[in-house]
Amino acid sequence: MSSKIAKYEGTEITPEDLRRERYLMTTYHTSLSYAWSSGVATGKYLAGLKEGEIWGRRCNGCERTLVPPRMYCEQCFRATSSWVRLEDRGKVVTYSVSYVNSDASRRDQPIIVAVIEIAGGSPMMGILHLLGEVAPEKVRVSMEVEAVWKSQQDREGAITDIVYFRPRRKE
Amino acid sequence: MRRVAVIGAGMTLFRRRMLETGRELSYEASKMALDAAGMTFKDVESVVLGTAPDMFDGVHMKGEYLLEGAGGLGKPNSRVYVGGGTGVFTPIGGWWHVASGLFDSCLVVAEEKMSPLHPHPQYAFWSIFDHTTERPLGVTLLWIFALEMRRYMHVHNVTEEDIALVAVKNKMNALDHPCAQIAAKITVDDVMKSEKMVWPVKRLDVSPPSDGAAAAVLVSEEVARKYTDDPVWIDGVGWNVDSQYWTNRELCYPAYLESAAKMAYKMAKIENPRKQLDFAEVYDPFDYKELHHMEGLLLCGKGEAAKLTRDGVTQRNGEFPINPSGGLLGVGNPIAAAGMMKVCELFWQLRGEAGKRQVQNAERAVTNGWGDLMQVGTVLTMKR
Ligand SMILES: [Zn+2]
Predict the structure, then answer these.
(1) Burial level of B221, CB count in 10 A (0-12/13-18/19+)?
(2) Once rounded to an integer, what is the mean pLDDT over residues B352-376?
(3) Interface probe, candidates A4, A7, A8, chain B, greatest B C-beta count within 10 A
(4) Domain total in chain A
(5) Which long-range contacts (CB under 8 A, 24 or more apart) does A61-66 make?
(6) pLDDT for the residue numbered A28
(7) What pLDDT, in 10s, does the model give residues A72-117?
(8) Which pTM does this prediction carry?
(9) Residue of B nearest to A17 (CA)
(10) B351 vs chain A: nearest CA distance in angstroms?
(11) Residue A15, in any domain of the structure
């Protein structure tokens, strides 16, 4: 605001106006279906998940192993070189506890969301996933975790073939 | 490149819901900026418009939809969009128009009307995530901020209470802003006890959804001298973007913002930003982002922002004020308009027109925008 300006325009609609239905509401029921291309790299990644395996791509330029995998290296801007099977475990890079759904409504039970650095990939190569079988207050950054897979017949080649990651059980 | 001056700025009230349409809001902000500059619609050669996802308004091609209210009819008109970075990228777009010599004047207008989408505008953001590897996990936009905040806290040993101090300060500063939506006197304890959204993010750590618009008039030096003895100069611009593979990045530091800031500082011949600048309007949709962005803008070292905040350095009457306007946390967050509001604040502060919010002896300042998947940095410096 400038001290030279006396009045700022704008007319507020209050929550009271909403309650009294002074605000017209139109709801559209739009149904959009998308047939996403998985892409070359993610296609192979999904095929691996179906087999209970996590695969990354190696770049011989920067010598990084990338996950999620891509067919080109964005840093070297060249084709990546080979497929590498990674381990189905890793370390928590960061985590949070979600009390809300996608539409900002409240969840009945909070879920733990994490970025997990996958063992066998390069440092900081993480994926987004959920944590389970652990209380939120017990989770730590750098905690070792392992994938809990759906049963073989239930896996469909999707990121949800991993149900969640749980604290690693020492062998 | 030619020098580019700002000679007028305007904005509407920021509110959760407003009667005015996006076009009407754009008109009010644009008209105020033109009046302040002493110009009319006819004097404007070009228009750059900034507005965020079409999904908020439920109107496709929002750039064209807003055109008439933004003074763009029959003129070279373009829309820029880089998520939350849009508000600062819009005047950067205007700067290209004038600095290049293509135009002598450019009206820059940023608008957002988030209220139409029910039950909550947050919902518009689910499609920002990867459709195959992330969306099936039940994503919500708040996740990425909570994950980034947690990582920042972990690496630098920063507490939730340290971060809450930012919300307390900005909401307090906003009490002096006549357009503010959620100005308030609150305590750290209020923030700590507010409803958990996606821990560590709590209700009072977050800026609200808002409706609003803001605008400014950018002109060449020659035109500026005709209209005013008191122009403010845009002396540096910078922008950068990091990888969409956000889970592969070190989230504790916005390296892309540092790159954008260095680009702007180089142009503005700023070698020591903390010394050479007098204050900053730092992008603060969340309280932790103020600390994160102070570091990315090289206003302090990595992990030092919390201490500066605790020590009162960033208060409006402190040694280096951050967000004297009240920021997004206090004034409100109509996405594109919120960033533009910060640019207007720089203009008003540097002209000495900021009234109760006035930072003493302010001659140079920086502002930044940030957005998309925590990956865009847009930076602009101004001097009087
Ligand atoms: Zn490479």
Answers:
(1) middle
(2) 96
(3) A8
(4) 1
(5) A64/A122, A64/A125, A65/A120, A65/A121, A65/A122, A65/A125, A66/A121, A66/A122, A66/A125, A66/B245, A66/B248
(6) 79
(7) 999 999 999 999 999 999 999 999 999 998 877 899 999 999 999 9
(8) 0.95
(9) B17
(10) 9
(11) no
> Does the pLDDT at position B173 exceed 70?
yes
Instruction: Please indicate, yes or no, if residue A54 is contained in any of the structural domains.
Output: yes
Which residues span the domain enclosing A56? 39-167
Q: What is the edge-to-edge ordering of all strands in the sheet holding B279-281?
A: B77-80, B46-50, B105-113, B211-220, B4-11, B232-241, B376-383, B364-371, B279-281
Q: Mean pLDDT, to the nearest integer, of B132-151?
A: 94
Distance CA B281, CA B328 (A): 10
Instruction: Give the chain B residue whose CA is nearest to the CA of A4.
Output: B353
A-chain CB neighbours of B36 within 8 Å are 2, 4-5
Retrieve residue A142's tokens: 């750098």
In chain A, which among 22-51 make CB contacts under 8 A with chain B? 23, 25, 27-28, 34, 36, 38-39, 42, 45-46
Mean predicted lDDT score pLDDT of chain B: 96
Asked if residue A20 is part of any domain, the answer here is no
Please tell me which residue, B52 or B171, carries the higher pLDDT value.
B171
Decide if A140 is inside a domain. yes
| B287 contacts B164 by C-beta, under 8 angstroms | yes
The ipTM (two decimal places) reads: 0.92
> How does DSSP classify residue B350?
H
| CB spacing of B248 vs A128 below 8 angstroms | no
User: What pLDDT digit, counting tens, does each position of B321-346 carry?
Assistant: 999 999 999 999 999 999 999 999 99
* Predicted confidence band of residue A1 (pLDDT cuts 50, 70, 90): low
C-alpha B370 – ligand 1 centre gap (Å): 27
Q: What confidence score (pLDDT) does residue A171 get?
A: 66
Q: Backbone phi, then psi, for A146, in 5-degree steps?
A: -135, 155
Q: Report pLDDT digits (tens) over B190-215.
A: 999 999 999 999 999 999 999 999 99
Element (H, E) at B107: strand B105-113
Burial class (CB in 10 A: 0-12, 13-18, 19+), B283: buried
Instruction: Specify the CATH architecture of the domain B4-118+208-383.
Output: 3-Layer(aba) Sandwich (3.40)
CA of B2 to the centre of ligand 1 (A): 39
